[in-house]
Amino acid sequence: GCANVSDTLTYRYAPGVLMNNNEPLTVCDTSFYDAGGGTGVTGSSFTRTFTPASPGQKLKLTLYGLDLSNFATLFVFDGPFVTSPRITAVSNNSNGTTIQEFISSHESGILTIQFTSGSFITQGWYAGLTCHIPEVYRTVADGNWTSAATWERKAPGGNFVPALRSPQKGDDTVFVRHNVILSTSTPMDQVIVQEG
After folding, report:
1. Is the dihedral of CA 53, 54, 58, 64 positive or negative?
2. pLDDT higher than threshold 60 for residue 147
3. Which of 104, 144, 179, 191 has the greatest CB tally within 10 Å of its CB?
4. Are 19 and 33 in contact (CB under 8 A)?
5. pTM to 2 decimals?
6. Would you list the DSSP string of 33-66?
7. What's the confidence (pLDDT) of residue 152?
8. Does residue 62 contact residue 88 with C-beta atoms inside 8 Å?
9. How far does CA 55 lie from the centroid of its chain?
């Protein structure tokens, strides 16, 4: 037979970096929250510059959950300043738990993140800041750009292995050796199209 069992589910958020001031930080592998932390509210507008703690690596921002109000925006810049090229501007149109990743392609590996508060207070975001080792990608077959099956990857000093994801801006050189379909605008750099 069936039994009815109930239990309390408790969430615990890891300590991490808060977007609660304008001080630059050197980080690697940390949680990243709005000013309210894992369970608080967004707070005021701030800009922070994050430098990777591991030399030669690039910072990657991964947004796991987003709840922004009207007119609130989370800007991600590719370098040490808000005048660096903008990678994205995330607004309440992106609210939810769809994972979004943004990798620095700046030679320093730095990301600058700017939050501008909106028309009311919300839960903000929970994210991660990690150090990313740029990998070389190459196609292994015709296919969609966004399909990992189209690609293989190689870390510095390593051998090519099947890719776990498609290449992103911030990765090392991308070699396109097959017919690849790009159905949406995809910011990239260091792409080499080879004759097949």
Report:
1. negative
2. yes
3. 104
4. yes
5. 0.75
6. EETTTTTS---S-EEEEEEESSTT-EEEEEEEEE
7. 95
8. no
9. 19
